[in-house]
Amino acid sequence: MDEPGGSCVVGSEEEATAIDTCSDIVRKDGPFANCYDFRDPTHFYESCLADLCATLPSTEMFCFNANQYLQACVLNGGSVKGDWKKDVEYCSSVKCPEGYTAFKDSCYKYYRMKKTFDESKAVCNGRGGHLVTITSRAENDFISILAEETRSWIGAERNYSASYKTFISDGNNSYTFLPESIPGGVVSLRFGVVAQSSAYIILSPTINPNENTSLYEFKIAANQTKSFIRRCMRCPEKDFEKRALLLRSQENRFFINFHDGVIAMGRYKKRGFNLHYTDENPIAVKYIAFKTLGTQGTWNFYDDEFIWITYETWGYDNFRSGEPSNFNNKENCLETNYDFTPGTWNDHFCFQKKSFVCEMERE
């Protein structure tokens, strides 16, 4: 156990810091020595190394991994005497209520008890916090581990005042860009299109792409032509479907997901993909553009379908492909869902009872 599993350069100062910091988890005379007979610490040590290599100079992920090991120890019948954080240099300054875990500027606690969405809000509020607001990939990964990959409520509700923005493509075979760029953490898109001819949409790293720029271009076919996805406007197809996806004279709604190198498009509120491609070298998507061929098209881009109950800016999402689907127009609350891909989100019925995560500011 002497090599970090993250991105530290071998022999670097960062590698030495990661090893030195995480060694408290495996030291025979360390604060967790009483746990070693109940749970092997190796996995937690290696996870600590990987996390620190990705987040140094911050050492907060050490405290998180140490706390995860403690929980695993206790679940297997072990115990740690006293307040272990007081004996560990990197955690002694963390001020969170008992039972809460620190991450960046907040404290978090996972509750296994099953509650409805409103009941979960009441529990968190009664303890001086709120249902968790997730605003970054790092925080989402942290919550996924903390909540033990269960279906748990997170603090977002359907935004009943949400609307859509309408744009027109004039059919002259040139792309029209949306006026605003995509927020850095948003990795999904829902839109509708009404057109008499095939429609195209691109996800681009630049607002001025040419035919060879690396980007994701989707063709949504009308009539009996072929729909496809490709990695530039002149590139070969990465995936295709030999049937029309665009029905004339009505709005056709679609979703596109583009995270972790998985690029997928499908019909909104339906399971599965029509087009799917895994990119080993993902493109950083910043702009969206659209066009129709020969005839005018109407495009509706749906905005802010959910809103954080803390009213923080919606600058990150991680929806499961095809979600939020709002089944029967009654899925108005948001959960983490691990049935398909770890850490993804799903809208669900607020009356369902689930575990949940509370968040509060550090003291």
TrEMBL record:
<dbReference type="InterPro" id="IPR001304">
    <property type="entry name" value="C-type_lectin-like"/>
</dbReference>
<keyword id="KW-1015">Disulfide bond</keyword>
<dbReference type="Pfam" id="PF08742">
    <property type="entry name" value="C8"/>
</dbReference>
<dbReference type="InterPro" id="IPR050801">
    <property type="entry name" value="Ca-Dep_Lectins_ImmuneDev"/>
</dbReference>
<dbReference type="InterPro" id="IPR014853">
    <property type="entry name" value="VWF/SSPO/ZAN-like_Cys-rich_dom"/>
</dbReference>
<dbReference type="InterPro" id="IPR016187">
    <property type="entry name" value="CTDL_fold"/>
</dbReference>
<dbReference type="Pfam" id="PF12248">
    <property type="entry name" value="Methyltransf_FA"/>
</dbReference>
<dbReference type="InterPro" id="IPR022041">
    <property type="entry name" value="Methyltransf_FA"/>
</dbReference>
<feature type="domain" description="C-type lectin">
    <location>
        <begin position="287"/>
        <end position="359"/>
    </location>
</feature>
<dbReference type="InterPro" id="IPR016186">
    <property type="entry name" value="C-type_lectin-like/link_sf"/>
</dbReference>
<dbReference type="InterPro" id="IPR018378">
    <property type="entry name" value="C-type_lectin_CS"/>
</dbReference>
<dbReference type="Pfam" id="PF00059">
    <property type="entry name" value="Lectin_C"/>
</dbReference>
<protein>
    <submittedName>
        <fullName>Snaclec agglucetin subunit alpha-1</fullName>
    </submittedName>
</protein>
<feature type="domain" description="C-type lectin">
    <location>
        <begin position="103"/>
        <end position="177"/>
    </location>
</feature>
